[in-house]
Write a structure and sequence with these properties.
heterodimer; A: mainly alpha; 8 helices; 72% helix; 0% strand; elongated; B: alpha+beta; 11 helices; 20 strands; 43% helix; 25% strand
Amino acid sequence: MLLLKLLQSVFGTLHSEGTPGQVAAGMALGAFLGLTPLLSLHNLVIFALICLLNVSFGGAMLGWAVFTPVGFLLDPLFDSLGHRLLLDTPSLTPIWTALYNAPVLPLTNFNNTVVLGSVLFSAMCFLPLFFFFRWGVDRYRATAGAWLMQTRLYHVVTASKLVNVYKWFRP
Amino acid sequence: MVPALTAPARPVKVALVRWKAVMPLGLGVLVLVLGWLLLGNWLVKRILEAAGTAAVGAKVEIAHVDVSLRQSRLIVRGLTVASPKEALKNTLQADELDADFETLPLFRKKLIVDRLAATGLRFGTPRATDGRVKRAAMDTARTATAAGVPASPAKPSAAAAAVEDIVDRLDIPGLDLSQGKIEVGALDPSRLGTAAAARALQARADSSSRAWTAAFDDLRTGPTVDSAVALANRLKGAKPTDLSALNDARRMLSLLSSARDKVDALGRGITAGVADLQRGVAGLDSAKARDLATAKGLVHLPALDPGQIGAALFGPAAAGRFETALHWVRLARQYTPPGLLPHASPAPKRVRRAGLTVTFPREHGLPAFWLKDAAVSFTLDSAKHYDGRLENLTTSQALTGQPTTFKAQAPSLQVGALLDHRHETALDTASGALASVRLPDLNLPAGVRLEPGTGSMSLRFALEGEAVRAAWEVHANRVTWARDSTAGRSTGGDLVWQVLSGVSSLDVTAQLSGTATSPSLSIHSNLDQALSDRIRSLLGDQVKAAEQKLTAEVNAYADPLIAPVKARITAVTGAAQQQLGVSQGKIADAQKQLQQRMKSLTGGIRLP
């Protein structure tokens, strides 16, 4: 079921009316959600951006689904990165101290090694991912897209009504 | 259903904002608000339970939570904190905790409680299930207390580890009389020292023998003596006017005198060497005596020394109380580090890696947690109610500038505690004295249970840095004793029972000193001497037999090692002394012969 939903999401997104840029932006924001620990305040902001900005919602869900396991895999890297920034770089301590004592910001859990590491990593990867996804969607639509629409698999997968959920936030 | 794939042509202009999503998003926010109204109490309850469990290392359970952000009020009902050390015991239970907190600091992730009223606190209550939890997160935690100091993977500090096994670190003697017999351990030859001493002495004897032989060879007295004897014979036919012969005789006497001096010097060296070897032989006997003492140490005697009796009887109970005090003090130190340096601690467990959460306190800022004032109402002895006051419980005393204090005073109760973590060396003290209360029962060795009834008990505890000082005292005038029917009956157990059951008063003093990693426990009670005398009279014969057996084993092990060495030393010293005597005799004879010839040649006239 999960796999079916994922395939529906992939097809639905790639064959949506959204531009490659909208799809790519959605996927990059979804990747942000997947790479960082979900229950963090910053992800509320990301989710609001996904809803409010005219990006592909399906792309965001797809990016989230794909990058969540990647986030699990990269947690040791995030932990190490956050540890280095929070504890091993004394020159940054005044910044962290100011942020920690500011309103609201401590609620983002930025002072957690995994959260800080993953957020910074995701932020750094955002633009490269966006351009990569946009190029990928472009290439897909120009090459394999039309052929795939004729296949039986495509029709089976997209026949389910579940696929329509994504249309609520279709660009 | 799915739109047809369009050509690569893109819309000329795409709106940036999806205004139609505002409504669903608003609905989402509304759902969140409704969710908070419906499930907020449950959510806070779960958070408090999880955080409390992680902090204490034992299950924290809450029956009901009522939180009001509008009134800045939190009410917790039915709080149960399990004991982290004892399986079926609670550390405390509380009927209700009513707290007024400040709302604005919550936006800074800081919980500032202005007032707390805790009612219906009970300590040490039983529970149906094991409330201990594994603290894996703590064990693998990494800590760092200062920015700029590379944080390394943390192991529990030695002192922290000591908390978990202070009973093991204390040398508490056993008093297992359930079988009425003493136990004798196996004799391990590798732990005995006679063999090494014998080998060393053998080597010294061989070395001395070689040295003395070489010294005798170097003296070369034989040719000198032979020349002297030959000269004496030649002088038989000489005339008194043969000055050359007389001069030869005088030179030879001088040579003989010199040779004798050398032999005498060697003799003194041999005498010293022989004395040294004899001391070595005496050392062998000492090594055997030590081995015998080691072997006798294998006799697991019931504590016969009165001082040990007290430790054997009350050591585990006293150590348990000290360990509990040390546990809570250590926990307080963990969550209230001194100073204003960044402090890392393990984050709450989650599906993804938890990582470390680092706090960055700032001067004049607020601590992450601060309970300013708490009125505590608690129950002891199932019926008596007491009131106490807890002040300035916080995660950073450097920010509040005040130590944490607790005080409760009543005619039959005095409890006080001070946690001062404002300076580099933390000072934690606690003391409590109860009078005329029903004291808890104590399970003692040999299947005996002490029911002290009503009496007085006090506990004093201080941990300054890592230096610990503590005392536990129990006084009761009408104690009763019960015997565990499931424990095996034995002569020894019967003896202990006979002695203890005739005692109606109890006076125990236990003192802990040293450091948390190397504590020392001493215990005295009014039962010590009586029990010691009776145990000694009962088990004296068994002890004697066991010691005789071990002595025979040590003799069988040591004597075959010692005898050859002694024989070798006797042979070496005898040979050296004999050779010395022969040399000295030959030189003396030659001197005598030569002097007689000269005397007869000169007629007794001393020549110039």
